[in-house]
What does this fold into?
Amino acid sequence: MGVSAACMERRQYLAAAAAGGAIGVGGVGGYVMLSDDVGFGPPGVPTAPYPPYPTADGDGAIEPISLSGSGQATTDTFALQRDGPTIIDTDAGDAAPDDRFQVTLVSATDGTEYRVIEVLGPFTGRNLINPPPGEYRLAVKQASADWTATVYDVPAYDTDSGVALEMEPPVVFSDGLDAVFGPINFGTQQPIEFSLSVDADVDYNLSLIDSNGERVELLIQSIVGQTDPQVRDVGGIGYLAVDTNTTWTLRAEPVDDTGS
It folds into this structure.
């Protein structure tokens, strides 16, 4: 990718709860997702190949929780029961450019809040948070227009469970705003190069997240100048999360480690 080895830090991580054998479709050449409406206004949420997210055993798909409202609102209580991450799609695409859209997930038991999104202007994106199982409400604290939210209570996928996952490296994505990709089956431990290029002079982050929803590392963080491609030894199942307010291209590709 035109980056010398000196620019790429090497660390070792296992982005999975279990180090079983590689699961999934072999020989995948990569997925490319580019929203039809990239350009003026917010791009759409990536939809392929997930959701729908499979059940832990792969026998079906989990049922999403669909919510909607207008302006500030707090939803009815719903249950999160699984031990993986909580992935939330939000859409406030009709908001005015100077209107703030702020959403949190609130525990119905003790009031603990988990930030979902806070942004100015229209927004359509996907975010990942990691609350424990329990009863929750979605609180739209600031909004000026209609909004929708879809909550996915995802299991902690295990390479030994037999679930076949469609996404494997190499993966290439072009889209915009916040997004979450996965579950990705990285297979047996191997060196992967992660890169994120953006189309505007704004802050951006790329996080590696394990199958339980825990952030393993903030791989790329523009605010501290860590913007070069990063190589990590990764195995098992995990996710990649992009946080920015512009369009971008993400790559996660195996590298030839024979010369190291």
Q: What stands out?
A: The chain has two domains: 5-49+156-254, 65-153. The chain has a mean pLDDT of 81. Residues 5-49+156-254 form a domain with the Jelly Rolls fold (CATH 2.60.120).
